[in-house]
User: Fold this.
Amino acid sequence: MKKCPYCGKQYPDETKVCAVDGEALDGVAKDRSKVTGVWRGVYGYGKRMKLPGLVPVPFTLKLKQGWFSQFTGLVTEDAPLGTPGTGSINGFFGSSRLEFTKQMPVGYLVKEDGTRITLREYIIGEGHPCERELPSPPIFYQGTLLDSNRVQGTWLINAHRIPLPDKQFLSMGGGSGFWCAEFITTDVQANPTGGPKESLFDKTLLSDNELEAVEGVELNSLGMFNVADAEALLDRFGQEDIRFQMKRNDAAMTEMMPITAVTGGLGGTAELVEILVHPDDEAAARKIIHWNDQV
Assistant:
């Protein structure tokens, strides 16, 4: 039997990761003390992200271990699928776990036909001024070492709002998916291609919470709303961390896209939008709706 070093739960010998907290079990991946070097990886999307352009993207991490388990680094994504430019990495490594924040220099949106536009292009297209390119939102990665040279886990983009020069806000949903990587070399000047050699993801090694964060659960409908009311509600939902999706004409909106991408903006052509929320957030969402009805 193996024992989780964090919660103490015991598992059969073939189990590698605790299903409760995601910690590597005793005896697993204890021989790596630093992440310094070049890692070759790939990230993909969960079932909720179904746009044609969202396919697995290879990437390269160049990391340097610092003090107190902190590490920094750079990330590049392979063309033509990946985001252009060199992004920054800031993270923590300890007890066989990696957690880091990734941010790319220019943010992009993926349209329903799979093509990409920058955030700046989208904002200008909606009639707002935008003098410079905007960075991507922070992307939060967490992972567990499967052995000394392989890691896998999940990534998350939280719902957020982009302030505009005219004092309005662009409401953005979140995004999530899986990732894995393998260690290549300590030579940070190397630029490897290919890999990881192992299968893309082994979802059986992820905890129930990690799987739900990516794959989601069946959402509950709050009903149909006009575009202006939906915009106001989703601003509040974002502030309260309420998980949501929207539907128009029976086509689910990907959570990476702003509401205006679906509705055409407050003056768009969509008369009604259906809002769906996570079951655990439904009570809080209905309180917000009830409060809005009273004012």
Notes: The helical segments are 119-125, 208-215, 227-239, 259-263, 282-294. The chain is about 15% helix and 35% strand.
